[in-house]
Amino acid sequence: MSVIELREYESVVIPFGALSEGTIGRIQASYANVVNTELLVYPEKQWRLTAAGTVGALVLDDVTILIRPKIPLANLFHLLDIAYDLPINYLPDLASSQTIQDFYDRLAARLAELVLVRVRQGLFRSYSERDAQLPYVRGRLRVRELKLAQTKVPVRYEEFSADVPHNQMLLAALYHISRTGLCREETQAQVRKAFQTLRGTVSLQRYMGRERLEYSRLNGDYRPMHALCRFFLTQTAPLHNSGQQDNPPFLIEMSALFEQFVANWLRDHLPNAYALTVQERTFAGNAVHVAIDLVISERESGDVWAVLDTKWKAPSQPANSDIYQISFYANSRQSPRAILIYPTSLLYPLDTHIETVHLRTLIFDVSDNIEAAGQKFLAQLFE
Predict the structure, then answer these.
(1) Which of 210, 260, 362, 364 is the most exposed place for a label (fewest CB within 10 A)?
(2) What is the pLDDT of residues 80-90, one digit of tens each?
(3) Can you list the domains of the chain with their CATH numbers?
(4) Of 257, 225, 282, 236, which Cα lies nearest the Cα of 75?
């Protein structure tokens, strides 16, 4: 299988025969928002592939397309660490990862290792409610479902079992990892072993990675495992068509990552006098509502101090649509400040007033030292 490497927002030209007609069709049908394909005919037929604002890997039937971020890989790992609360700080060998694929492989191996350790110690178990059709009464009868002449009765009962969400999420993540085709043979074997070990007592359920679970002293060690699971489940996209035989792609949407990173960083570093709300919903009419990326409020009064919107772009100046959007957010929440946050410096930054709203652009330079860039961003925010 051939490998094509791209860099976010950049293009590469490859020979026309390097991609089959079927592969081009699948890219155009399912991943046009990830990789744009353009046919060049002069001086000879070639394909120009251009990466959008997504990084990761597409493993198709005859080619693997790897997309690197525009920021250093080490900085990407730092963003993922903060955005997804990944236990990266406890995995020093991740710093030596040379590619997204290598990084994915090492995290997958770590999750499989943690799962196998927990299995040896004993899986977390709890009581869960189950419905069944049994030849005897157990627990409570589901009276409304009783029918004449039936040989089994519908019952609902409590069972002490390891087949609970805490373990089901582990199994779902291992299942997704095993299907991507991104792991080395050794890691794939370890992932498969962890999956088969769990499969005997845990059912495979659909998990999106956004489910919230409760923790106690009995299952507190599941937190780092679930952090890894959420990363794999949210970044491993499902196949668009059930009939496709391609592996599920591993894709990181950088705009969403930047938004989540800034939110989590601010939550940890805002002065105590302020509170942060993420994705606050507000009405844009009688029946239409929108979600504001970030809202900073004063804790004592509850008044909105600023509304903020993140933009994973590198323009020379803010787009008019972005200005209209953040101005609407500010007016809808009666905020005196509206701030657009970009990952790199703008040629024409904005610092103006629109009626009573102070509108600014600020930079959180994630291509630099993350903590130093964060402190600079925070200082500018409260200037």
Answers:
(1) 210
(2) 889 887 766 55
(3) 71-125+162-236 (no CATH), 126-161 (no CATH), 270-381 (3.40.1350)
(4) 257
